[in-house]
Amino acid sequence: MIPRYSRKVMAQIWEPENRFRKWLQIELLACEAMAKLGEVPPAAWENIRQKAGFDLKRIEEIEKVVKHDVIAFLTAVSEKVGPDARFLHLGLTSSDILDTSLAMLLVEAAAVLEEDLKKLLSALKKRAYEHKLTPMMGRTHGVHAEPITFGLVLALWYAEMERNLERLRRVKAGIAYGKVSGAVGTYAHLNPAVEAYVCAKCGLKPAPISNQIVQRDRHADYFAALAIIASSVEKIALQIRHLQRTEVNEAEEPFSEGQKGSSAMPHKRNPIASENLMGLSRLMRSYALAAMENIALWHERDISHSSVERIIAPDATILLDYMLDRLTQLIENLVIYPQNMLTNMQLTHGLVFSEGVMLKLVQKGLSREDAYSLVQKAAFQSRQEKKDFEEILWQDQEILKYLGKEEIKECFNLAHFFRHVDTIFDRVFGLREEPPNNRGNKKN
User: Which residues are catalytic?
Assistant: First the structure.
């Protein structure tokens, strides 16, 4: 499946133009705050406000010489402002600009990811209701266990992604902290009111305490949340891959006209989107580890974290944006084969109904151990002789001492397994009613 990923919103967040715009915003707000405090002459502030700007090429030219991005930026801005530029960056250090702007960028990125998750949740909910009562085999250890519905599988994924949305919102709030506190965080040459003013105007809170930087446990928390979301994507992709296996064939990724699955084997239709998402989730987890390595820095700060963040901040957010978009498409267009689900359910000749038989025997007065032994013996006979489990039970004289044929037959009723599906859906989605137009025209 070729992804439709073409949105540039997330990528634009990390463009140099947006980053420098944030830097300028912070510098101007700090200057404005100082002007309000009487530390910058009103005429100088007005001149700075009107003339301050930057040219990307000029910043690049200066940085090649000074080897310092913030100094290059300030020099380029100063060239436009003139002598009054001496009132810019008063008492500030580079990290005041870098960390406060990074918080703004990460908040912007989280907002995009929030929308991605909402779209994925909508797709999962629609398809969950579509297959609310579509019977399929539940598996534990990869082995047939008891019947479930495919709607329950989708609802389970929905609930996890809903937790991921809550998780993302939490770390979005946790990263929304800036600092304008000077070289080692003591406000030695600044009024804390400047920081409060800048952060409020930037949609942030002031870090209660900082050294030269905002502490990196906040960033580690943020990237760990992104990695958890990616791991949930991997969980879904893994199950789709299993369902597409030839021996299972209960669901498969859409295969577009003209698509080819193998250079050697014309018959192949492979779960390439799911495999792609699983591989990318591994990369996402590596970003979380790198962010955790950034927590421990020398004394009041070194710059070993900086090079890491210049890579992982744009890469992780852009990548997760892509992953969520691709998974949403996959869920929307996933091809389901209900008849194959029923066929697979019959592979064990009814063995998956064994627990119900055992419990009925317990209700008749047998100990659990004795009931288990009787049913296990019949189950193993069914497996060995490849005979219908229900028929084996009908011929078992020990079991017939306690259960009649009609009572045995009741144990093989699928409706018994699905009688609480409404309750589960109500817990997950908060309503009983099926959403309007949930079925659409999609073919199974």
Answer: 141, 262
